[in-house]
Amino acid sequence: MTMPHVGAIFGAIAGVMAIMLHSSIHKIEEGHLAVYYRGGALLTYPNGPGYHIMLPFITTFRSVQTTLQTDEIKNVPCGTSGGVMIYFDRIEVVNMLVPLAVVDIVRNYTADYDKTLIFNKIHHELNQFCSVHTLQEVYIDLFDIIDENLKLALQKDLTVMAPGLTIQAVRVTKPKIPESIRRNFELMEAEKTRLLVTAQTQRVVEKEAETERKRAVIEAQKVAQVAEIHFQQKVMEKETERKISAIEDFAFLAREKARADAEYYSAEKFAEANRVKLTPEYLELMKYQAIAANSKIYFGQDIPNMFVDGSNSPPKPPWLFSLNMNECEDWTITPHV
């Protein structure tokens, strides 16, 4: 064998080895797991991120994502209960596969498990929802709950069929409807908006009127309360004046009564003193004292006439006492001519 033939053989062997080495070395990205098939049978040991070697042409692999991923389902047809065909332009399903469940899910539903478990389920649930609701309900009234209903329905089935695959969120775009119906809906929405604005304006006017009424009521109540306070103040002033007058009257009556009682008591005591003092002996003493106090004593036959008024008689003394000379022996008597 000549040298050129040997070089060709070695070159061919080197080329085959390079091709086999290139086919056996593969790279797995972060957030993925590699599942292997050998002769069509799924192997039970997946590999994580990095470079790995496998038997070329005998063993194949599929990379399965285990982090959050978003599957998009586009142009989903849906027929309403009224017979109108609408289309959902795009539905996004955010899901995540647990690494421990990768082998079981791939074995049961292949590496394209999302087409079986998510895409088909979305089509089925949307068609069921649309078939029992009208276009008005699907397009407007119940549109805000479609995504939540899809999420709950998907997660309920996945919990039973594929444990380890969880649905994080479902986002549904507004469905496409026939152009004529869309224009009618737009006109209806415009009219509804106008009516809503009118209703809101009317409500604002009513609120303003109610506010003005309440303000007027509050002002009237305030005026009434102020008037009532002034009235109560005047009543209290009059009541105070009445009480003061009553107290003054009571004090005046008390003083008058005390003075009358004092005068009555003095008169009573004076009368009692006179009654005790004016005995016959005391009166006799007073008579003698009165006689002793006179500087003149009258005698004669006209003495009794001193108490009788006469036109020709001269004025008589206003008082006349008879004197018993035997009891006045010490006196000096001067006869009056």
TrEMBL record:
Residue span(s) of domain Band: 23-189
Keyword set, alphabetical order: Cholesterol metabolism, Endoplasmic reticulum, Glycoprotein, Lipid metabolism, Lipid-binding, Membrane, Signal-anchor, Steroid metabolism, Sterol metabolism, Transmembrane, Transmembrane helix
Domain of life: Eukaryota
Family of the protein in this entry: Belongs to the band 7/mec-2 family.
Species annotation: Gasterosteus aculeatus aculeatus (three-spined stickleback)
Protein name per the record: Erlin-1
Cellular compartment(s): Endoplasmic reticulum membrane
Record's GO cellular component terms: endoplasmic reticulum membrane; protein-containing complex
Pfam families found in the cross-reference section: Band_7
MF annotations from Gene Ontology: cholesterol binding; ubiquitin protein ligase binding
